């Protein structure tokens, strides 16, 4: 009997102007085969050079038998990674097929390095969640127990609103390509995804080591009629919702002339994070609230009549207003919300727990100001997806905790809900003493 690709949601279909570039990450638990999968993608799609292949073949940390190439070494470049056979830091690789260009982020599976996974996931359009068939627990009653890191990475993907989730059931060769095992794992992940609120999910059985269903169809799994992994990645639609959102322009730099010209040139440099802007548009400067009108839009290649999300530009205004780095220029009809009290979901990324008595720097767009955590409303259990209230007010967040918190900031933030505009809905917290990033946050309104 033929098995279609299990789908727990439907893709939105191809959008007009679909991007030719797809950013995706691999995620999952330890030794699920993430680095090997990426190596297989690069190798089978001819995405590596001969000298890279030769260097990998000569590696003293080769962990394969005979002349077989250790494909994981194509992404695990750190000496510690090669010695231990694990991924520690995020590794980015680039390759292309005739249909699309790709940027891959290979992220760690170890719980200790979950913060690095968050970094890689923050810019991804899609995530491949690997599930190792040899690691999941298959109970006699037919149920399946997924690993905690698989659940944690899936939860982070949901919080970061990654559009597409691919569940890659890996190492099928270790269970003799048993369709029954695959179906049980897919059913278990589907139930968990439903509790999580994930909607656009596609499952695929494969073996990264043997190459089954990665680039080439597997003769060992004739029961699977769906696309290979590379075909699936080539077909994913990527629609940047930032283009349809209200205009947001965090000011990075105020540009002045060199002092030897008569005209008083004053431009505001930055990147359009969402929406679009045209000459003559009415804007509001936030947080001051002053109005302004777009006089010119300048780029390195010359002036523009209109600019859209993703473009780096210099704005010249008709009015003389006080604007500095950290301010946000927004469309007058739909400004951002000014916040001094912030509700947010955070992923705690520091080894030291949260201390509510301390102050932290908050980096939001181009603005940096002091912040204080005034409350921890709830902490999420990644296994059950239930939130619990902290036992006492002094309980701090620990490494990898995901929680809903309250912040008080010294200067108001021109912010949006992360669900609406990522750029103005995201922030990081920085320890004022060590200058380490301790948390990544998503604003909820």
Account of the protein in words:
The chain is of the alpha+beta class and 445 residues long. The chain has helices at residues 34-44, 50-57, 79-84, 114-121, 148-159, 179-196, 229-235, 422-425, and strands at residues 21-28, 91-97, 100-106, 126-132, 137-138, 144-145, 164-170, 201-205, 248-256, 266-271, 276-278, 282-286, 291-299, 302-304, 306-308, 312-317, 328-331, 337-348, 359-364, 367-380, 387-388, 402-415, 426-431, 437-443.
List keywords for this structure.
445 residues, alpha+beta, Rossmann fold, Elongation Factor Tu (Ef-tu), domain 3, 3 domains, 6-stranded mixed sheet, 24 strands, 35% strand, globular
Helix/strand layout:
Elements: E1 21-28, H1 34-44, H2 50-57, H3 79-84, E2 91-97, E3 100-106, H4 114-121, E4 126-132, E5 137-138, E6 144-145, H5 148-159, E7 164-170, H6 179-196, E8 201-205, H7 229-235, E9 248-256, E10 266-271, E11 276-278, E12 282-286, E13 291-299, E14 302-304, E15 306-308, E16 312-317, E17 328-331, E18 337-348, E19 359-364, E20 367-380, E21 387-388, E22 402-415, H8 422-425, E23 426-431, E24 437-443
Parallel strand pairs: 1-3, 1-4, 4-7, 7-8
Antiparallel strand pairs: 2-3, 5-6, 9-10, 9-17, 10-16, 11-15, 12-13, 12-17, 13-14, 13-16, 18-22, 18-24, 19-20, 19-23, 20-21, 20-22, 23-24
